[in-house]
Amino acid sequence: MTGFLTTDGLSADKANQLLDLADRFVEVLHRPLPKVPALRGKTVAMLFFEDSTRTRMSFEKAAKALSADTMNFAAGSSSLSKGESLKDTTLTVNAMGPHLMVVRHRSVGAPWRVSEWTGLPVVNAGDGAHQHPTQAMLDALTARRHFGSIDGLRVAIVGDIRHSRVARSNVHLFTTLGASVVLVAPRTLLPPDLTGWPVTVAHGIDDVLDEIDIVYLLRIQHERGGGEVFPSVAEYVSRFGLTRARAGRMSPDAVVMHPGPMNRGVEISPEVADGPSSLVEQQVANGVAVRMAVLFDCLASSSDPEEESP
Ligand code: CP
């Protein structure tokens, strides 16, 4: 694989191959020495032009667990403040010889541009409201490990879908793997045109709660204008928040997922976030194994993760 930019067009076979590999890396990460030599001699550059906790740290841990070296760029402490452009920043990092770049940027398409400028494999760690493909993969891994299969699962994605790259990546991946997806949001937090989206739509969480296997909650993306399109937080919570009372009406086997960061008391109550149906911590943990699988798939020349690449 030359990079990992989007789940749009990813085949079920390729997604399942990556998930199988991630399952192997979950086992590696539980060993006393949670490391394999697969990417020894390779260097992964992390270019995060937007803030991140989970994605950035799990790519770092994933690269190191594969014995790769890492180079880190953080926008806030970089020469961007002196006016350096995205292209010059990218070419500067490229001149230091990384083998792959992980890119997060607020602009849609930035990871594709980085790939064109450098000729390197690029992993999209989130571009604007467009795609966050490794988030979708870690969500799929978490759901598959919990339920055994994604085929036939009923997934509700609830919240600020309009501004969410996670929603876009997850709709593509979960439907490709055989799940059905319903989007639950006020009209103002849905994309203006859903033509071609393989989904149904509901406008209140109570309409779908008892027929769903996964309630996937999204925060309001204030940084992209999501907070300006409904009257008040209290009204939003009254129709879309997963409160303890609502969680009690879910099927006993249903689970709650969230990509983080969570806004407790808005889209999810603290009791639900920390409760027995929450898979949020498993999602974070599985992010490392999924990112190991993606980096290995992009960079390794051996098919065996236990072997050093020649
Ligand atoms: N889910 C996610 O992308 O989290 P971060 O912004 O902390 O990386």
Largest sheet: 5 strands, parallel
Number of domains: 2
Listing every helix as H and every strand as E from the N terminus to the C terminus, the arrangement reads: HEHEHEHEHEHEEEHHEHH
Helix content: 25-40%
CATH topology of the largest domain: Rossmann fold
Query: How many DSSP H or I helices?
Result: 10
Regions with little confidence, pLDDT below 50 for 5+ residues: none
| Morphology call | globular
> What's the architecture of the largest domain, going by CATH?
3-Layer(aba) Sandwich
Order of adjacent strands in the largest pleated sheet: 7-6-5-8-9
Folded structure, characterized:
The chain is α/β, with parallel strands linked by helices. The protein folds into two domains: 12-131 and 284-299, Aspartate/ornithine carbamoyltransferase (Rossmann fold), CATH 3.40.50; 133-280, Rossmann fold. It is built from ten helices and nine strands. The protein has helices spanning 12-29, 54-65, 86-94, 110-118, 133-147, 165-176, 233-240, 244-247, 270-273, 280-299; strands at residues 43-48, 69-74, 100-105, 122-127, 154-158, 180-184, 200-202, 214-217, 255-257. The strands form two sheets. The chain has a five-stranded parallel beta sheet, covered by helices on one side. It has a four-stranded parallel beta sheet with strand order 2-1-3-4. Helix 1 (12-29) crosses helix 5 (133-147) and helix 3 packs across helix 4 (110-118). The site of phosphoric acid mono(formamide)ester has 10 residues, from helix 2.
